[in-house]
Amino acid sequence: MKISNQDKKLIKDAIKKVELNTSGEIVPVILKQSDFYPAAHFRLALIMGIIFSIICYYTYDFEDPIALIWIQIPGMLLGYALAYIPPLKRALTTTREVQEEVYQRSLEIFYENKVSMTRDRTGIMIFISLLEKKVEVLADCGINEKVDKDYWNDLVKSLSNEIGRGNMISGVVQAIGTCGEKLIESFPAKRDNSNQISDELITDL
Q1: 28 three-state secondary structure
Q2: Is 124 strand, coil or helix?
Q3: Axis crossing angle, helix 5-19 with helix 168-186, rounded to the nearest 10
Q4: Alpha-carbon dihedral angle through residues 136, 96, 90, 35, given to the nearest 10 degrees
Q5: Domain count of the chain?
Q6: Tens digit of pLDDT for each residue in 121-140?
Q7: Shared domain check, 108 and 29
Q8: Domain around 18
């Protein structure tokens, strides 16, 4: 998937529109994946190596049993390569691994991009990791004190549903507007309302 310049502009314009009326900052992030998940590659490599050995054992008459070990090597290489296919990688990654890696990556970007360093601690990050089909919304303490946790949970659910329907960009624009409602309500724009964080979408697509 490739995010077009037009899509990036739609998201940027949505942020600008919201931030004209609030001192808060909204940072959208869309990544291909939050981690490489090497364990998924090794798991599939092991599985394919065993499958190759079983097939060859019942198909060919080996005089040397050691040959069965060598037969595993191409199977393992194939399995490692096949794990690059997103559905296979997801299937071979545990729920706990996904939750940990997505949350860790979202925290890294949150602090790397200084979302936690706005003047009134009102930064909000909308984080999407496509491989894992995960959405995270991280809000700094200033705005978090004003908003019930269910508000963010409902936002995550709504955005996830839009992504599932194939409406990711419009879903992000809608989520930006939803975040803006709370920011404008609790942190209206000030006279010296400067833009503290770039309005550009953070993405590797």
Answers
A1: strand
A2: strand
A3: 10
A4: 60
A5: 2
A6: 999 999 999 999 999 999 99
A7: yes
A8: 5-35+94-203
What's the length of the chain?
Answer: 205
pLDDT band of 57, cuts 50, 70, 90: confident
Do 111 and 186 fall into the same domain? Answer: yes
Identify the CA nearest to 21 among candidates 184, 194, 174.
184
Q: 196 near 118, Cβ under 8 Å?
A: yes
Q: Which two tokens stand for residue 45?
A: 């490599």
| Closest to 197 (Cα-Cα) out of 124, 104, 108 | 124
Say if residue 53 is in the same domain as residue 139: no
Residue 141 and residue 169 in one domain: yes
Question: From CA 17, how far away is CA 174, in angstroms rounded?
Answer: 12
Does the pTM surpass 0.90? The reply is yes
Q: Are residues 99 and 183 in the same domain?
A: yes
Instruction: Give helix 38-59 / helix 66-82 axis angle, nearest 10°.
Output: 140
Q: How many CB atoms lie within 10 A of CB 148?
A: 10
The structure tokens listed for 182 are 């709370």
Same domain, 105 and 128: yes
CATH value at residue 24: 3.10.310.50
Query: Of 91, 118, 136, which one is at a domain's C-terminal end?
Result: 91
* Residue 87: pLDDT band with limits 50, 70, 90: very high
pLDDT at 195 over 90: no
